[in-house]
Recover the amino acids of this structure.
């Protein structure tokens, strides 16, 4: 582990890379663009996955699994979809290798060329809707509410761990409905599920809204999203939920008979979040000392470290800490006792700080004598002593408090970095500070594009609001129905 | 659903295909060799995965994720490994498509050719050991106990759902150790975990043993396996655990310093089970009416169907069944109440029979009046009535009984189809009956090959036994240390 990590102020991007490395979350593989998710990082992802999976099931969805390979021709069936995805995909052209003439290596066997090339799925709408055609005849077969946990590949030259990699892990929901209303309601429901997860598990406040037409998913009629603010003031799109209309049903000829026998195309949605959430999690809460994890996602919520000189001391302290651990585990708390004799307490303190463990307990001979423990909170770095008796009830409360505090702190940060601007001059002057800029926009792609070209800021979303306040576009002065969020983004 | 499915006697292979289709477990995709695992099939796989995952974690393993892509050159690094896997792999040669000249489709962009082709992982030893090189310096970094849940691809022309598909889902454990003893112990431990899972969750008896050298995993020094008998008397290899020696450490130059600073190559194991277990599960227990599931893996353990004419009857029956369901769910039982008014009870009975639900409850107006329920066991097809009051305690017991009965029944079947044979003439006369044939073998690859060529039977394993009984090879008369198991296999 590097003793002196880069700080956020020095170099935010390097801080992130160092942190992902030092906290043992992931690393680049020798295969260009692909990452290796290491056990500690994967344990966080497992928590994310398990919670989301439960939420999907509670809203009526089942998991299934569709092929990794998509025939090249499928991609062309939905016109705007192919535009969006064909440019960046891994293409399988052969199905066999053979020994080289010198016998020392292997080479592609030219006789094993596929008749039609296969694409590694960048997303699965096409292969799934090709199957739904056979599954759907009548309204009785609807809705279909399926989710898939899978790896997908979108070729990327410039990659960043978790944030942008050629292969990544994700879930993709693909639902089929008899009516437009039902599909729209599903699209909205899944956005709410994502927002619930982001705020109540990741402790990451998000803005719910709608993408502009130019930022929509390729093939969608409407793309809803949750947007989060990172500590450098940049936006990160944390999840999207798409209303696909009848586009994929038409492309794959998926019709159903309604109650009166009338044929119509099926209505569709798709929605997904990915290992990108890991990047969002890191950048929302972590500090210059390392990772800070919300308790609900932390693989280890409480770690206990004994401090001792003699083996007799160790024995007594260990007995106390292990007993406390048993009691905490019985309450469902993920507790680790680290009695490794080969490592000094200071080394361990640093290790668990870098790894973002929410609560660290230390106990030395004096604590033992006084019947107390030392508690260190990772989020605020506060330390205090606690009587041994009260620890059992206090620690679960403290975990809840940390979870809440992280959310409040992030929310406050976002509020402090969200600005209303009314002139394009002011916007251009301030956009490099970072943050969310609430500004009026005339609703045209031309204006959106102009702002993007001139400032690199994009419209992150048209936020849902109950009280849209009309105004005039900051660029053109034309009428605007409500303020939208401009920001630079990951 | 097809009303009249093929029976096992008529055509065992067609019976299997029909069953997988009728029980809604999986289907072939339009992508040659790839399957779609449907929600009901995937729910069973989720149960398999979750139980195994818990067992792996209880034995100290963590999950991680390595890239889907393996550079072609990695495969050549371990000489026997490339022999085994290079012939059947999907090769990625390009990373972009472009629009065709007529604008109507897409084609591979010749400018986007990869410098080195990438192979879709058929198994991950090479990519993982290439990473372990950077992770391991000293004995303090060992052992590494990692498992990965992933999709892998081995090109197959002739595929069968779950049993042999080009893409399949599996787990692959990859561990690194400081000593040979520890790696051997790990290999054996994981075989015991697999056997425990097969017998106590799948209710599928297995023989634990060792593969002959010619049946070893490509790159292994020793391959241990569990072998199960299907209802047609064929063997199915249900899991393998490999002691890899220092082969991959040498191929990828993975050395460590021991306590005294001496450098040595690291010792390795790998072990895996796949969606093939789904095929084994189907073929171990199911009957001519459809799937039969052991309760511990059944997505629905108990289904309740109301029988009624009036809505008043329905209301009363529903109240009773839902209350029972609540009580069963609180005991962790997966209960479903099927009150779908659009389907007749007979249709539902058939549906849940085909899908292998272990216990079906029916309740009609007369049952209501008598305070009783009708219970139908899927495994024995017995029906009996139960007082409403006793159901709550009796049903959990009955689930345990069904689980046990399925294991006993399969074990009895295996015993009835396991034969000792002492002459090759007898062997050849009887091998087509199906079953496991315990025979003496002289330990040579030549004899093994001869038997395989002449009879299509292979040595499934050299079973572990505490009392090896020496004898003479049934083919050559040469000395044999113990009987081995010959069988035809999936």
């Amino acid at each position: 582990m590097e003793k002196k990590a880069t700080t956020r102020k020095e170099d935010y991007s390097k801080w992130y890379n160092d942190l992902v490395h030092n906290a043992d979350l992931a690393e680049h593989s020798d295969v260009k663009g692909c990452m290796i998710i290491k056990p500690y990082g994967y344990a966080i992802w497992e928590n994310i996955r398990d919670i989301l999976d439960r939420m999907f099931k509670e809203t009526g969805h089942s998991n299934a699994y569709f092929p990794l390979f998509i025939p090249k021709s499928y991609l062309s069936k939905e016109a705007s979809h192919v535009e969006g995805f064909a440019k960046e995909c891994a293409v399988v052209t052969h199905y066999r290798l053979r020994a080289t003439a010198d016998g020392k290596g292997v080479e592609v066997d030219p006789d094993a060329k596929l008749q039609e090339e296969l694409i590694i799925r960048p997303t699965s709408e096409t292969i799934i809707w090709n199957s739904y055609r056979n599954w759907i005849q009548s309204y009785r077969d609807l809705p279909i509410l399926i989710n898939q946990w899978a790896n997908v590949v979108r070729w990327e030259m410039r990659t960043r761990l978790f944030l942008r990699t050629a292969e990544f892990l994700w879930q993709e929901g693909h639902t089929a409905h008899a009516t437009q209303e039902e599909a729209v309601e599903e699209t909205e429901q899944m956005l709410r599920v994502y927002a619930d997860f982001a705020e109540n598990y990741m402790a990451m406040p998000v803005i719910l809204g709608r993408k502009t037409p130019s930022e929509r998913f390729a093939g969608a009629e409407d793309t809803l999203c949750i947007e989060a603010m990172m500590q450098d003031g940049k936006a990160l799109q944390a999840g999207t939920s798409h209303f696909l209309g009848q586009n994929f049903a038409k492309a794959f000829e998926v019709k159903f008979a309604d109650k009166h026998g009338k044929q119509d195309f099926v209505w569709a949605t798709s929605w997904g979040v990915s290992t990108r959430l890991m990047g969002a999690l890191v950048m929302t809460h972590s500090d210059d000392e390392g990772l800070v994890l919300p308790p609900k996602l932390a693989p280890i919520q409480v770690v206990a470290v004994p401090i001792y000189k003699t083996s007799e001391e160790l024995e007594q302290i260990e007995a106390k800490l292990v007993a406390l651990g048993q009691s905490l585990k019985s309450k469902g708390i993920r507790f680790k006792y680290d009695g490794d004799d080969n490592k000094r307490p200071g080394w361990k303190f640093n290790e668990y700080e870098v790894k973002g463990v929410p609560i660290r307990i230390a106990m030395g001979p004096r604590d033992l004598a006084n019947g107390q423990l030392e508690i260190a909170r990772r989020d605020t770095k506060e330390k205090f002593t606690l009587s041994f008796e009260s620890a059992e009830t206090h620690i679960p409360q403290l975990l809840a408090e940390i979870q809440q505090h992280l959310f409040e702190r992030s929310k406050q940060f976002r509020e402090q970095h969200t600005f209303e601007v009314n002139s394009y001059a002011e916007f251009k002057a301030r956009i490099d500070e970072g943050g969310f800029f609430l500004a009026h926009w005339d609703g045209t792609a031309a204006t959106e594009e102009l702002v993007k070209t001139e400032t690199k800021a994009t419209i992150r979303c048209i936020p849902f609001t109950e009280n849209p306040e009309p105004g005039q576009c900051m660029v053109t002065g034309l009428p605007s129905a409500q303020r939208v969020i401009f920001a630079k983004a990951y």
Q: What stands out?
A: Chain B is about 35% helix and 25% strand. The CA atoms of residues 462 and 484 of chain B lie 5 Å apart. The two ends of chain B are 27 Å apart (CA to CA). The domain at 12-69+122-285 of chain B is CATH 3.30.930.10 (BirA Bifunctional Protein; domain 2).
